[in-house]
Amino acid sequence: MPDIIRTTLKPLGLLVLGASLSACGFEPPIHLPAGPGKDGYTAGPAPHETAASMGKGGGAQMLEYGKNLHQAWWHLFHSPRLDALVKQAMAHNPTLDMARAQLHQAEAVAAIDASVFYPQVSANLGAQRAKSVVQSGGGKSTSYTYSLFTGGVGVSYYPDIFGVNRLVYQGSEAQVEYQRYQLEAAGLSLSGNVVAAAIGEAAVRAQIDATRQIIRQERQLLKLTQTQYKAGSVSQLNVINQQAQLASSEAMLPPLMQQLAVYRHEMAILVGAYPSQWHGKPFTLAELHLPKRIPLSLPSELVKQRPDVQAAERQIRYAAALVGESRAEFFPTLQLTGNFGYASNATRLLFSPASTVWSLAASLVQPIFEGGKLNAQEREAKAVFEGEFANYRVTVLGAFQQVANALRAVQNDADALSAQRTALDDARQALDLAEYQYRTGATDYLSLLASEVQYNDAKIAYLKAQAQRYQDTASLLLALGGGWWHQPVKGVPASMAGTAGGASS
């Protein structure tokens, strides 16, 4: 039997080898577009240091080009409570659990596709009891009953002549890497949402505190105006105007309270809890520290550091494998099968040499006419490839746009905060002077009211500019990729794998 097998398989082996060599080139070449190189992220001179101003969050920021983040990016805010909150979200957020499950599913699919490279071996053992009727001459029939016992091993194998199996597996491996980068992107997005919610909550609380302080001051002014009205030194119109200003400031509180509730509810969902179960300590701007130094990787490194860009590249490779598969479908498919076993009508003779049975078969199937299906499949695969390539370009351009926008935002936020600080200080001095002159009768109520409105607006605008600087700094660190690539744990978001060496802040 071995000589027969060798004689049968030798020409088939030569066919497989030759066809496999000819299978190269089914996939389209992938030429990814080059980045901007030394042109930088923004049009015009790149910012290197931001303006500084007095007060919380007013320090200058240094942009250190050519340096990469070496730790989870939110640690640069130096808030232990923020670190703990992000860690809690990474452990309990269901969106991250879903991304992790999708990765495990892709790994399982890749393992299934890899099984086609190996022979499929099965064993069988059977017993049969049957009655047969044999017709003889003269219309007579004879019946007899017999038993049949069988046992053996069957082998089937699909040689990868034109690389179809390799291309299928290559595509599934690309999907595994895609899901792995999607998991990284989900972790990065989750950390960004947690930080944004924390900063938003802190900013709204600061506005609520400022609004309540403004309301207290306006109530004092209302009492003073009412006293002066009773004394006959001012008209009733002044009292009504002050009452209207107080009511206007009080009307600002409910929307702020609603914003605060939204942030608190969002925080609960991010950490995988119901809003009614979230009782975390409120965040304040006082416990967040604006990073003084921001590591800024070079444009040539950005595509390697953005998980969404890496995921888009894996989709291109998956689509290229689909094109190769569609082309390989035009060529023959080879199947080899072999069976070896025993068959006997008595169990005592089942494994005797006389009961040996075997078979060896090879089949080659060549598509000839399928109504244009194969051509249509190839066109579809090429369209998918072109679409994924375009999507990659969109993702890369979007990544550079986000970094460029965040860079300018960090620069302009510092200028805006400095200007708002000056406006607030001037408005405070103007209000103090107007209150003094009003008390002494040196000015009228309208001048006081104008100074009061100006100060209230300046106070709220300053707090918003202060919070915006924190938010845009976080957006820049996120746009740069967040430092996840330094984490050695495969398939786990950076935030869940601990922290690596520290970047300066």
- What is the topology, as strand order, of the major beta sheet? 2-3-5-6
Gross morphology is elongated
Number of helices: 10
Return residue spans where pLDDT drops below 50 for at least 5 consecutive residues.
11-23, 488-492, 494-505
Strands, total number = 6
SSE order and pairing:
Elements: H1 2-22, E1 62-65, H2 80-92, H3 94-114, E2 120-135, E3 141-157, H4 164-230, H5 236-250, H6 253-270, E4 293-296, H7 299-305, H8 307-328, E5 333-344, E6 356-365, H9 373-440, H10 445-479
Parallel strand pairs: 1-4
Antiparallel strand pairs: 2-3, 3-5, 5-6
Helix pairs in contact: 2-4, 3-4, 4-5, 4-6, 4-8, 4-10, 5-10, 8-9, 9-10
Task: Walk me through the structure.
By secondary structure, the chain is of the alpha+beta class. Helix content is 57%, strand content 12%. It is built from 10 helices and 6 strands, in the order H-E-H-H-E-E-H-H-H-E-H-H-E-E-H-H. It is elongated, with a radius of gyration of 38 Å.
